[in-house]
TrEMBL record:
Pfam families: Glyoxalase (PF00903)
SUPFAM superfamilies xref list: Glyoxalase/Bleomycin resistance protein/Dihydroxybiphenyl dioxygenase
Location of the VOC domain: 1-120
Upper taxonomic lineage: Bacteria, Bacillati, Actinomycetota, Actinomycetes, Kitasatosporales
Protein's UniProt name: VOC family protein
Coiled coil: none
Signal peptide (from-to): none
Amino acid sequence: MTTSVVSIVYVNDAPAAARFYGDLLGMRPSFETPGYITFDLGPGADLALWSGQFEDLSPDVPRASEVCLAIGGGPGEINAIFKQWQSEGVTILHEPHDAGFGLTFLAADPDGNRIRVAPRD
């Protein structure tokens, strides 16, 4: 059986969110409709941005999940990404710190969805 895991992030404006995530990931969408856009993250993994499912998503509403970008290259690479995102005005929720599994930091997209950058296992 072939399995694909699609992580869905609910957003207010899928095209605007796709520009944000495309810049962060350094890639272009693999599939686009006006309200549903995906990024192919590799074999069996996609990130989907879906608008129109909830009205007026607010960054003020607490989130219980995260998109985690697992990074190779160690703490130096994670710190470099943090500095780049910070200089680009990405909202940082928690600066780099050791969370027991390695250096990590937490950011948010414009809709308030959480994005964690952490070391690859």
